[in-house]
Amino acid sequence: MTLKEKLAIKAKPINDALEKYLRIREPKKLYNASAHIPLAGGKRLRPVMALITCDMVGGDSNKAIPFATALETIHNFTLVHDDVMDDDDLRHGVDACHTIYGLSTAILAGDTLFAYAFEMITDSDVEDFIKADLVKNVAYVVRKIAEGQQMDINFEEEETVDASEYLEMIRLKTSILFGAAAYGGAKIGGTTEKEARELEQMATDVGLGFQIWDDYLDATASEEILGKPSGSDIRQGKRTLLAIEALNRTNETDRTRLINILDSKNNDKDVKEAVIIMERCGALEACHKQANGYLEGARKTLSKYPQNEARQLFEELLEYMVTRGH
């Protein structure tokens, strides 16, 4: 059985739960908009990670389904709002929410998904003190995601960004939600706070690799693989780690040209030229290596657990996160 098939099996209860929670009610436009992106598909990596973590520490992952579904809902709430802020027209290969329902309804749809997530967490089949801990942790994580998003917006106004600042931004904006998945799955599975935090850190680290690889794919993969237009980060002038590495590594002529492409209205030819510059100076290769480097620490953490089906699936999932589409 392929990893894709294994993940699909693991994700089925998440998809079923999303269908149940995101049923259409009045006003229909709002709830149709809210359901549009979550029910369009997606990899379900975060909720699946929560379920696998719960299994790996010896828990019953069925108890983690509401929490896992909440994480997927949080993720989709951020996607709906990101597409508004980035003016992206495609998500998961379908029209972005705001292109169908308008900006105002898309913002409300994101807010609705955010609220739904906390309703879902309270449905988890665990003791109240664990529910309270999960609610507090997820609320903290969402606030940190907002901080990361604002950092990302700020970076667009700066000519250069320090690599350490960028890594902190993606830790907050993206990888922290993977950490929340591992932490919540572990807590629902009945493990200790210390062990849950260790797994949280491991998943957060691999989440950094996931985002760096996502930036790499944005520049190199086709629209068919991405489910959205390729090169969107370059078009938006984003200082991803790929752009930062290129600006630090390339010669003055290419550096000036790359800054000009990032900071001006560009076309497909400009985007392709930017990617050539990134490849020529070794930035693409450097990001590839860094993304894979985050796997090493994760493998050490997972080696402490019995070599069973849950651990094997976790290892496969983590490897997929930093090699997908390659």
Structure description:
It is a single chain. The model has no long low-confidence stretch (mean pLDDT 92). Helix 4 runs antiparallel to helix 8 (163-188) and helix 15 packs antiparallel against helix 16. The chain has 326 residues and is an all-alpha fold. The protein is 75% helix and 1% strand. Strand 1 and strand 2 (94-95) form a beta hairpin. It has one domain: Farnesyl Diphosphate Synthase (Orthogonal Bundle). It has a two-stranded antiparallel ribbon with strand order 1-2. The protein contains 16 helices and 2 strands.
Task: From the structure above, extract its key features.
single chain, 326 residues, mainly alpha, Farnesyl Diphosphate Synthase, two-stranded antiparallel sheet, 16 helices, 2 strands, 1% strand, globular
Overall geometry comes to: globular
CATH topology: Farnesyl Diphosphate Synthase
- State the separation between the terminal residues, measured CA to CA: 20 Å
Strand content bin: under 5%
Sequence of strands across the biggest β-sheet:
1-2
Identify the CATH class: Mainly Alpha
**Biggest sheet architecture:** 2 strands, antiparallel
> What would you report as the Rg, rounded to the nearest angstrom?
20 Å
CATH architecture: Orthogonal Bundle
Which regions have little confidence, pLDDT < 50, spanning 5+ residues? none
Helix content: over 70%
Counted up, domains total: 1
Helix run count: 16
Write down the secondary-structure element order.
HHHHEEHHHHHHHHHHHH
CATH-assigned homologous superfamily: Farnesyl Diphosphate Synthase
Label the structural class.
Answer: mainly alpha
Compute the number of strand runs.
Answer: 2
Mean pLDDT across every amino acid position = 92
